[in-house]
Amino acid sequence: YNHRKQLGVAIQTMNLLKHKKNIHLYVLGGGYDADVTRYKDMVAKLELENNVHLVGKVPNVKAKEMMASADLFFFTSIDDATSTVVPEAISAGLPIVCHDTRGFGVIVDDKIGLKVGVKNPEYSVREFAKIIDDLEAHRDVVRKLSTGCIERQNQISWEANAKKMVEQYELAIERFESKQ
Questions:
Q1: 3-state secondary structure 40-94
Q2: Which of 3, 9, 38, 130 keeps 20 to 30 A from 118, CA to CA?
Q3: Euclidean distance between the first and final Cα of the chain, in Å?
């Protein structure tokens, strides 16, 4: 748990949604002891223990199992240009709710998720809460976004990227040979 992850934004978002008893946030991963304590205290102070679950570090297999049983992936980070967890969520068919920034801001489009502009934490909290509340009420949209994730997975897979690279090399060779 560190500043660039913006876990406080996720917890504050859950505070706005705490009247929705069926919306839960599971936070996987570790962090510095002081940060973990701060976020545990925040959850307790806001009385969110029934909705926010600070799970901690889990094996990758367990994380993928948890993703498979989730409805969406809530990613509040503002400074993770090459996070692997977003493509993992896409592979699991999880619609993404995230900030519109860095690498995942490019990967996530309206076919696989919804994004919030980076302005200030209060804005993010309000907008994320609106999005999650709306998705909870419109399960058909969640299903459509999930289908989009499967299609996007095919576009961003290693195989798809390797194919694009081979095509570019072949074009470069053709150009080179035509100049000879």
A1: HHHHHHCCCCCCEEEEECCCHHHHHHHHHCCCCEEECCCCCCCCCHHHHHHHCCC
A2: 38
A3: 56
71: left (phi over 0), alpha (psi -120 to 50) or beta: alpha
Burial class (CB in 10 A: 0-12, 13-18, 19+), 154: exposed
Number of H helices, E strands in the chain: 8, 5
Per-residue pLDDT for the chain (180 aa), expressed as one digit of tens each? 445 678 999 999 999 999 998 999 999 988 788 888 999 999 999 999 999 999 999 998 999 999 999 999 999 988 765 567 888 899 899 999 999 987 677 789 999 999 999 999 999 999 999 999 999 999 999 999 999 998 888 776 667 668 778 888 888 888 888 887
3-state DSSP call for residue 161? helix
31 backbone dihedrals φ, ψ, rounded to 5°: 180, -175
In one-letter notation, the amino acid at residue 107 is: I
Q: Is 64:85 a contact under the CB 8 Å cutoff?
A: no
Task: Note whether 16 and 126 are within 8 A (CB).
Answer: yes
